[in-house]
Amino acid sequence: MTNNLQNLLNKIKKSDHATDSGSHMHSLMQHIVIDGKGTHGDNELVQQILSHPNLDKFFTPASRTEVPIAGYINGKFISRRIDRMVIDHDKKTIDILDYKTDIDKSAMVDTYVAQIGEYKTLVRDIYPQYNIRGYILWTHDFSLQEI
After folding, report:
1. pTM
2. In this predicted structure, what is the pLDDT of residue 80?
3. What are phi and psi of 102, to 5 degrees?
4. C-beta pairs of 47-51 under 8 Å, 24+ apart in sequence
5. What is the pLDDT of residues 89-115, one digit of tens each?
6. Strand partners, 100
7. Buried (b) or exposed (e) across 32-65, using 16+ Cβ within 10 A?
8. Reduced to 3 states, what is the DSSP secondary structure of residue 99?
9. β-strand 76-88 against 93-100: which pairing, if any?
């Protein structure tokens, strides 16, 4: 019994650490702005972003951060917050980015794919004529995965 309780406490501690780590990373990421006139935010993260193609567009002054969105999907009310979003009205495209701090990309991938799908559905309801793409930024290796 004691061993089972210790295992449960260890899992809770590990989960709390992961949540705290993810929240800290989100906080750092939402303050990054990459602009030719000046860059703001954590310098190490800025360098990581700049070293990966196609990431910097999510961190320009034109990008939106922590975008609240809500609506109905299959009769169920959904309220979410998109980490980063870029709208290009000329090209009629919207790119959505969600940060994930997981090291094991496969552990929660089905949940994350569903989450990005909800974002895309809710955004499509607002911008029906736009091409909407969703991405996950895996912050442990700064890889970008299109969903």
Report:
1. 0.81
2. 94
3. -60, 140
4. 48/142, 49/142, 51/142
5. 999 999 999 999 888 888 898 999 999
6. 138
7. bbbeeeeeebeeebbebbeeeeebbebbeeebeb
8. strand
9. antiparallel
